[in-house]
């Protein structure tokens, strides 16, 4: 996965504890939700994600981030996709998202095709959930069953996007608090942020980073989270942190400010066992995908993901 120097990207990993009320357990979301109403929905989504990722391998990470940044504000309700319109101030303009999030055109195309096949049936929020899974799988990561039945929000929260998405210079305490607000615990937390100037242990790695992110200019420079397998979804990120070669300042925060050792143990476990990481990551995404979902009579199925229905 890849990030901008000035931006915070969220990767999450979870073990077994679930502290939020699960929409799955409550029977609000279902597997095969569109089996009767739009049987080709999953195929349409996966085919077009594959096309987009083949054109631009970075798009996989970008589409995954859309799901994260959507869920962390008001819940998994596709509010992140809304443009400015009337009283709505788009979350796209919030600090953590502006000139950083991308992939909206891919979602637009998928939604257009789904509307042709099954008008006003598949929600934009469910599209984001399916796209996240397919993006990870296409880059060699795990797959998981996507629970569906979300509705789309009727509003956005510009202030919420600025408040609830962790900032690049967050301390470990702040990062944990951000995740706790979403019902997620430290085992769900791998938040990456800040620039490269805290890296002092590895001179070769630091020289590479200085060439990408000089002290002045190139604030929007792109760099992979790891330099060994930048196009793959794997556990190399954890290996890098364990070796002191994390890209971002909050990589060091995860281990240097973890005085109790819980996060250090997770980093070591995931660095040592990729299958454990894959399993935990899949569980985490499903858990995150349950945050404050709209179902039933709440929300709507948008015809266009960028605007609420007239």
Looking at the overall shape, the CATH architecture of the domain at 187-216 and 226-287 is Orthogonal Bundle
- Widest sheet, order of strands: 1-4
CATH-assigned homologous superfamily of the domain at 187-216 and 226-287? Peroxidase, domain 2
Strand content: under 5%
Shape: globular
Topology as a string of helices (H) and strands (E):
EEHHHHHHEHEHHHH
| CATH fold type of the domain at 187-216 and 226-287 | Peroxidase, domain 2
Spans with pLDDT under 50 lasting ≥5 residues? 1-21, 190-209, 221-228
- Quickly count the helices: 11
* Average of per-residue pLDDT values: 78
> Could you give the count of β-strands?
4
Helical content (DSSP H or I, runs of 4+): 40-55%
Distance between the termini: 37 Å
Oligomer: single chain
GO cellular component, one term: extracellular region
Main location: secreted
Cofactor: Ca(2+); heme b
Binding site for substrate: 166
Provide structural commentary.
This protein is mainly α and 310 residues long. It has helices at 41-55, 59-71, 104-117, 124-138, 158-164, 172-181, 203-212, 236-242, 249-256, 262-272, 274-288, and strands spanning 2-4, 9-11, 190-192, 222-224. Helix 1 (41-55) runs antiparallel to helix 3 and helix 1 packs across helix 4 (124-138). Its EC number is 1.11.1.7. Its main location: secreted.
Helices and strands in order:
Layout: E1 2-4, E2 9-11, H1 41-55, H2 59-71, H3 104-117, H4 124-138, H5 158-164, H6 172-181, E3 190-192, H7 203-212, E4 222-224, H8 236-242, H9 249-256, H10 262-272, H11 274-288
Helix pairs in contact: 1-3, 1-4, 2-4, 8-10, 10-11
Site (Transition state stabilizer): 65
Binding site for substrate: 166
InterPro entries: Haem_peroxidase, Haem_peroxidase_sf, Peroxidase_pln, Peroxidases_AS, Secretory_peroxidase
């Amino acid at each position: 996965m890849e990030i901008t120097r000035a931006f915070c990207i969220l990767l999450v990993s979870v073990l077994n504890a679930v502290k939020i009320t699960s929409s799955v357990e409550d029977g609000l979301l279902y597997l095969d939700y569109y089996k009767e109403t739009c049987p080709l929905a999953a195929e349409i989504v996966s085919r077009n994600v594959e096309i987009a990722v083949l054109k631009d391998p970075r798009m996989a990470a970008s589409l995954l981030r859309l799901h994260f940044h959507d869920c962390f504000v008001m819940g998994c309700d596709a509010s992140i996709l809304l443009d400015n319109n009337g009283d709505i101030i788009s979350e796209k303009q919030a600090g953590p998202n502006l000139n950083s999030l991308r992939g909206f055109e891919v979602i637009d195309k998928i939604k257009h095709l789904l509307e042709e096949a099954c008008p006003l049936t598949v929600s934009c929020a469910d599209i984001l959930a399916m796209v996240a899974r397919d993006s990870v799988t296409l880059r060699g990561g795990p797959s998981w069953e996507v629970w569906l039945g979300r509705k789309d929000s009727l509003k956005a929260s510009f202030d919420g996007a600025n408040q609830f998405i962790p900032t690049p210079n967050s301390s470990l305490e702040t990062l944990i608090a951000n995740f706790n607000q979403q019902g997620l615990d430290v085992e769900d937390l791998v938040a990456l942020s800040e620039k490269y100037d805290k890296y002092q242990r590895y001179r070769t790695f630091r020289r590479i980073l200085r060439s990408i992110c000089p002290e002045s200019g190139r604030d929007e420079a792109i760099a992979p989270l790891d330099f060994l397998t930048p196009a793959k979804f794997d556990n190399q990120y954890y290996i890098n942190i364990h070796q002191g070669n994390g890209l971002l300042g909050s990589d060091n925060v995860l281990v240097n400010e973890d005085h109790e050792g819980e996060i250090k143990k997770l980093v070591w476990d995931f660095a040592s066992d990729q299958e454990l990481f894959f399993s935990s990551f899949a569980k985490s995404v499903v858990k995150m995908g349950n945050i404050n979902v709209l179902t039933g009579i709440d929300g709507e199925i948008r015809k266009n993901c960028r605007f609420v229905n007239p």
